[in-house]
Amino acid sequence: MSASKIHVFVADDHDVLNDSLEAVFSKVADFNFVGKARDSEQLLSCLRHKQVDVLLLDLYMPGVNQVQFIDKVKTTNRDVKVIMLTSKDDLYMAEEAIKCGAKGYVSKTVRRGDLVNAIKDVYHGNTVINVKPSALYQNGDEEAIKRSLTNREKQIICLMCKGFKLKEIAGILQIAVSTIDIHKRNIRNKLSELDISTDASLGFWAANNGICEDVEFA
User: Using one digit for the tens of pLDDT, what is the confidence trace for 173-193?
Assistant: First the structure.
């Protein structure tokens, strides 16, 4: 690995989100994805033994006392730069996170490119706040949209979030690639009112809404 790569670590209690971000960051030439944790104890243990330049930390991960946890992270690894990942687009909370030592506060609904750029900006010493208006879902009934997803569509969403390609998904589900492509278009159409247009934003949304928790693959 090149010494110039940014060592990125993700901490979130949703495996789908962790896997989705790992799949995304593993493809970014400037990044070295060094690990993931799903609770505070596992995170702190990893920070003691790994080189981490930028940590993406879920604001509401179990064992995390919101922004106050940043001090414990910095005590464990003083060099790590923290970006709070959140589903709560709250500018007041963003300001509090920055005051407590975070270098970024980013909504889980941002596009993949914006998240990648936020990591690079924070790594280079800048402070980043990127949240969307709380009225994001005003034009659509999110619960109705979630209920409209079929089990097959949920299967495909989960596999996409784990980084599988269409051909690989077709093999796992034992259906044609063309059929997967049709399902994917249907998914995009159903979620279009929620401003979900990329695989990364799909991963964030699926994790926040427990889409993969009740999916049956049998």
Answer: 988 888 888 888 888 888 877
* 76 pLDDT tier (thresholds 50, 70, 90): very high
Task: Indicate whether 129 and 182 sit together in one domain.
Answer: no
Q: How does DSSP assign 12-73, residue by residue? A: -S-HHHHHHHHHHHTT-TTEEEEEEESSHHHHHHHHHHS--SEEEEETT-TT--GGGHHHHH
SS (H, E, C) 111-173: CHHHHHHHHHHHHCCCCEEECCCHHHHCCCCHHHHHHHCCHHHHHHHHHHHCCCCHHHHHHHH
- Write down the mean pLDDT value for the chain: 84
Q: Is residue 86 classed as helix, strand or coil in its secondary structure?
A: strand
Chain centroid, CA 31 distance in Å: 15
Q: Are strands 104-107 and 128-130 parallel, antiparallel or unpaired?
A: parallel
The CATH number of whichever domain residue 12 belongs to comes to: 3.40.50.2300
Determine the structural domain holding residue 64 and report its residue range.
6-135
Q: Is residue 214 part of a domain?
A: no
- Would residue 213 count as lying in a domain? no
Task: Give domain status of residue 216, yes or no.
Answer: no
pLDDT of residue 138: 45
* Contact yes or no for 5/146 (Cβ under 8 A): no
Under a CB-based contact definition with an 8 Å cutoff, are residues 15 and 36 in contact?
A: no
Predicted TM-score (pTM) of the model is: 0.66
